[in-house]
Design brief:
The chain is mainly α. It has 9 helices and no strands.
Length: 209
């Protein structure tokens, strides 16, 4: 009698994955193309060809390319906050360790050969019109990040926490740009070390006062 393979055993076949819906294929294709090439450089025809769907399928899910761009940026932002929140959760009650953990992750990503910076920052450069959906999504992310960084600086007990929080924000945006310029071995790899020294200097200023 042949034994029935147990679930999880080497001989058990994995359950077949459900095929991705058309809208999910569109989002995945847009995520890859928009990030690598820029939003303006990618046309709807290329997106539907990459996703393996028809143009009417795209327009049933998104009323325009602008709305698809905004959806891409919302997905990108979700990934961003997932990384940020993971760094915070890894160091309960320790704002200094939280931000340095997050910055070390940026250092790793920003020194990879295929790095194209922050999709949200890139979108603001491509679409400076404050009424454009891509601009609005991106600006809201930057404003919330600035708020959180200032709050974290205050929790560290540094002198002039708003200035330190803004300094951390500038380091992050600088890493996004320099990562594209220099790639592996570039200055973005030093972002956590630079932030650590800035924080230490601000903390020492409090002690001296």
């Amino acid at each position: 009698m042949t034994a029935t393979p147990q679930l999880g055993s080497p001989s058990a076949k994995p359950a077949p994955r459900a095929p991705l819906r058309a809208v999910d294929r569109i989002r995945a294709a847009a995520r890859d193309l928009f990030y690598r090439r820029g939003i303006r450089a990618v046309g709807v025809e290329e997106i539907v060809a990459t996703a393996g769907v028809t143009k009417p399928s795209l327009y049933r899910a998104f009323i325009s390319k602008d709305e698809l761009a905004a959806a891409y940026l919302r997905d990108y932002e979700s990934e961003f906050w997932a990384r940020f929140d993971a760094a915070v959760a890894a160091h309960p009650g320790d704002a200094r360790a939280q931000i340095l953990d997050f910055l070390r992750g940026i250092a790793v990503r920003a020194t990879q050969a295929a790095y194209r910076g922050c999709g949200l920052t890139n979108a603001i450069v491509e679409y400076p019109d404050p009424d454009h959906p891509a601009f609005r999504v991106s600006l809201a992310n930057k404003q919330e990040l600035r708020r959180r960084l200032r709050a974290m600086a205050a929790a560290m007990g540094v002198a002039e926490p708003d200035v330190v929080g803004d300094g951390l924000h500038l380091l992050i945006e600088g890493a996004y740009v320099s990562g594209q310029l220099f790639g592996p071995g570039g200055p973005a790899g030093s972002i956590a070390a630079a932030a650590e020294r800035m924080i230490a200097g601000a903390q020492n200023s409090v002690v001296q006062l």
